[in-house]
Amino acid sequence: MRHSRSAVRALSLALLAVATTVTATGCHRGARGDYALAPEMRPLEVPPDLNLPNTAGASQVPALASAARPAPAAKPAQGGFTVPGSRDEVFGKVGDALAAVDGVTIASRAQLLGSYDVAYEGSNFLVRVVGVEAGAYVSAVDPRGLPATDPAAIKLLEALKAKLAQ
Fold this sequence. Notes:
Elements: H1 2-26, H2 48-51, H3 65-68, E1 81-83, H4 87-100, E2 104-110, E3 115-120, E4 123-132, E5 135-141, H5 151-165
Antiparallel strand pairs: 1-5, 2-3, 3-4, 4-5
């Protein structure tokens, strides 16, 4: 039995010696990293303050004159008109006036958008109500989103203007 204990002891010492040698020589190989290379082979290091330009004062955007006040609503050449009152009040009045005009069919109404989709004398277009400083601006818009220049749209706007002026 003694013989087997000494063999185990000798084998244990041999394994311990091998493990010590491997850890002493092999573990530090990767720890040296790029510093073990020749200076010409090392990667270029850029100081942190040179990586990005200083933009502390360069990113300030000057205030625009138009940012202080909203731009006035564009008026079509064929004529929209302004009605005193809030946009929601005028939207309701325009709906009542459209219902009173003969030949007008209201396909849909969108109060949040301030528009009526109408058909009048064979033409389809939107009647829009937009809030402006002086009240609400009523205009007609064709399906392309441009001011309506159709004779039916101009005629309907004139009728609305007359009914809302009363």
